[in-house]
Amino acid sequence: MTALDLHHTATNPRPAPAPPQPSAGPQSDGRGPAAGLTPGGAAPSSASLRSAACGSVTAVGQESEGRGPAAGLGSGGAAPSSAPPRSAVSRLVTVVEAKPEPGAGGRRPAGGLPASGASRAVAVAGPEAGVPGPGPVVADLWDAAARIAPHVVRTPLLHGPAVHALDPGLLLKAEHLQRGGSFKMRGAANAVLALGADRLVTGSSGNHAIALARLARSLGIRLTVVLAAGAAPAKAAAIRALGAQTVQVGGGVAEREERARALAAEQDAVFVPSSDHPLVVAGAGTVGIELLADAPDAETVYVPTGGGGLLAGVCLAARHHPVRVVGVEPSRTPRYARSLAAGRPVQLPPSTTVADGLRGQRPGTVPYPIIRDRVDELIAVDDEDILAAAALLHRHGIDAEPSGAVALAGALSAGRRERAVAIVSGGNTPARLHAPHRTRTPAEGDGITVSG
Q1: Using an 8 Å Cβ cutoff, are 179 and 214 in contact?
Q2: Would residue 425 show up in a list of annotated catalytic residues for this protein?
Q3: CATH classification of the domain holding 134
């Protein structure tokens, strides 16, 4: 099959919807306790995923070229005010098998869990009405949108592949076209600009550090990046090419974060984690603001889930919107699904997956309660499905990295006939990072490419 060009269809962007006013009662968003959670048919096999239909890819709403960064975020009136989280409701969250954490004293949910590889739904109760959890609130997303406007672009929605022959169409939020090659620029910019520090330390799998390094170089900030074992060599090279110092540690993400925090204390620097920070979550949430403004009739949004910053941000953006929010995790690192099943954050051992940006071992302190209180479903996809989704995107002319294809893999495996949006969270593939002479998109600005 020949590669298809990426086309942008110039249409008028939809204005941002007016802030919804929640009604009184325990279900202010109008949904039943488990509304819409039953898939509309059996999930397709990996083989059917790999043979999914290919059509042309066109932009919906607006093009990224020629627009002011984050254009249209404030259209249609003032930013919505923060409101209390949704009242306590019971909804279903799909979880994969979770064994009790050794020595943690946790128990399996009533009835036990299915055999390895299986999944089932468990009830998750929301918080008491009017009791906010820690972290950002909805209004912080709008503050973030204004703050980061000079440093990001508003990415388009693209028409994606059909999940079913008769489905209403799947849209793709093209964050691979964001400056720095991923959505991470949003949270990184919000944190850096709000904190005003002249020395930063972070732990990152690559994309968050690339975003921070671009910002640090332009703002004259010293940056040290701690990388875990197994970090992508191309991303590590790109980070160093942007002027950041890198430190490699053995072990997984937990060891990386521990070393980064200690290093920040030693250097009298500010630690900016890749997801577990209110400013980072609020910045990531601007993806959700744009998405819901451009596709207000979307029934489901599929969100790749690693540290949880993007999923938490989308959950905040959708706090008063009826859209279903579905987090998609690699099957080897289902830390949020297992934590929700256990009723508390649990830590998984280090693991490997082709989605190198989603290898987090434990839910973040900031994202976890936000996700717990709003997410509708968490699903897992295996590496085979992730690679198949990435290949499908490449055939559509979308250069997504495996982590960036996880949400599409989730949408295709769910197999629902619905108006859905899958977030293509990043496109920093080795080929893209190593191509010194390729044509860069306007979103990339001065680029992050390094000669190979």
Answers
A1: yes
A2: yes
A3: 3.40.50.1100
